[in-house]
Amino acid sequence: MELLMFVIAVSLIAVVLAVFLKNGRMPVLAMLVSLAAGILIFLKLIPSLVKLITEINSLAQSANLNIDYMVLILKVVCIAYLGEFAAQICRDAGENGIAQKVDLGVKLVIMLLALPLLETIIETVTELLV
């Protein structure tokens, strides 16, 4: 709950400052405030993300799941979050075109990461059919 309150407080303060700076004809400072708030929130979230990853890893080990698949899932989730963060920064700066390229790049990286899993699924299905 404390983490949520921090995120909300920093977000609201940053929004008020950014709007004030934009209206005062200082859009660069407004963008920097938004960027700083985003980085501050992200840094505050890192310990929670580490705890989440540790717990998921522990659950996977206790269930005797293949850890490689869990690592792949965690990589995909982290890439998706980081990519969304970068794309939102671009959108906040008014660079929608760059944000779309970030989104495309993230999707491509996720597909590349998923290729070994896709190969395993195809091999398994082929073995079952033969």
Give me the secondary-structure topology.
Elements: H1 2-23, H2 27-62, H3 67-92, H4 96-129
Helix pairs in contact: 1-2, 2-3, 3-4
Overview of the molecule:
With 130 residues, the protein is mainly α. The termini are far apart. It has helices at residues 2-23, 27-62, 67-92, 96-129. Helix 1 packs antiparallel against helix 2, helix 2 (27-62) runs antiparallel to helix 3 and helix 3 packs antiparallel against helix 4.
The ordered H/E elements are HHHH
Overall SS class: mainly alpha
Quaternary status? single chain
Outline, from the CA principal axes?
elongated
Q: Major β-sheet, in short? A: none
- Overall mean confidence score, pLDDT: 89
The termini sit apart by 53 Å
The percentage helix is over 70%
Share of residues in strands: under 5%
Unreliable segments of 5+ consecutive residues: none
Question: Number of DSSP helices?
Answer: 4
Strand tally is 0
From the alpha-carbon coordinates, what is the Rg to the nearest angstrom?
A: 20 Å
